[in-house]
Amino acid sequence: MADPWQECMDYAVTLARQAGEVVREAIKNEMNVMIKSSPADLVTATDQKIEKMLLSSIKEKYPSHSFIGEESVAAGEKSILTDSPTWIIDPIDGTTNFVHRFPFVAVSIGFTVNKKVSVKGDLERPESGRGQSMVGKWRVCSGTQKLAISKTQQNTIYITKSLLVTEFGSSRAPETVKIVLSNLEKLLCIPIHGIRGVGTAAVNMCLVAAGVADAYYEMGIHCWDMAGAGIIVTEAGGVLMDVTGGPFDLMSRRIIAANSKTLAERIAKEIQVIPLQRDDEE
Ligand SMILES: [Mg+2]
């Protein structure tokens, strides 16, 4: 059966490519950097410009669809997920990278129906490759490259042989930083092979989907950081889980994306949870 949402996905790819061009141009120019929730939570006029561009294009083509966008929420819009087809957008995932010209930035476009980061179709089939189309400019796995999670770990899932990806986050509250560092310490001392992070949740998750990292975890991120890349991980054969070991919740602001359930559960066992206000909490 034809996928009723295929047209939306194709449109998302077109929009992400256009937005990527805007990022490429803007990165050459001087930037006016503003701060949001913390001195390390940055925004530029380009973030706002791209979100406006995406929002107006989507509203014109799909007037009945809903929309959650990082910069719209920053400007006071609510981020409530409903059953209606919803576009969840991070115009620039990795704004700090963008500001410093650290070359890992994503335009993330996610799409949910009935609150699920999925569309009708064969989501369990890694070869469908549909997920990769939902994130735009991405240097590692762009184009038509087929994604698949790391095979070695699929067969022998030892955390001691894993390479993880995570971030320090944008909170500078000492009690939060302490938990972030303590989680890193616990995982490193298991011991594991290593921990990396390229400064954007979307790209970090795509690295798991591509099989070059075994798992990603983070707390304090938002639905727009996870919606686009989450499906890329599951389509590549990976799993999404909450950091408590329970089911993944898009509005919970936390995630483990891993090459297997076993590895995700093992990471969850080590993680101390940071208390956070949900994305859909008033
Ligand atoms: Mg952003």
From TrEMBL:
Cofactor: Mg(2+)
Signal peptide: none
Binding site residues for Mg(2+) 1: 70, 92, 225
GO biological process terms, semicolon-separated: inositol biosynthetic process; phosphatidylinositol phosphate biosynthetic process; signal transduction
Keyword annotations from UniProtKB, A to Z: Cytoplasm, Hydrolase, Lithium, Magnesium, Metal-binding
EC number of the protein: 3.1.3.25
InterPro entries linked to this entry: IMPase, Inositol_monoP_metal-BS, Inositol_monoPase_Li-sen, Inositol_monophosphatase-like, Inositol_monophosphatase_CS
GO cellular component assignments: cytoplasm
Pathway membership, UniProt: Polyol metabolism; myo-inositol biosynthesis; myo-inositol from D-glucose 6-phosphate: step 2/2
Alphabetized CDD domains for the sequence: IMPase
Molecular-function GO terms, alphabetical: inositol monophosphate 1-phosphatase activity; metal ion binding
Pfam families named in the record: Inositol_P (PF00459)
Highest taxon, organism lineage: Eukaryota
UniProt subcellular location: Cytoplasm
Reactions catalysed according to its record: scyllo-inositol 1-phosphate + H2O = scyllo-inositol + phosphate; 1D-myo-inositol 4-phosphate + H2O = myo-inositol + phosphate; 1D-myo-inositol 2-phosphate + H2O = myo-inositol + phosphate; beta-D-fructose 1-phosphate + H2O = D-fructose + phosphate
Binding site for Mg(2+) 2: 90, 93
PANTHER family (alphabetical): INOSITOL MONOPHOSPHATASE, INOSITOL MONOPHOSPHATASE 1
Oligomer status and interactors: Homodimer.
Family, similarity comment: Belongs to the inositol monophosphatase superfamily.
Protein name: Inositol-1-monophosphatase
Organism: Nyctereutes procyonoides (Raccoon dog)
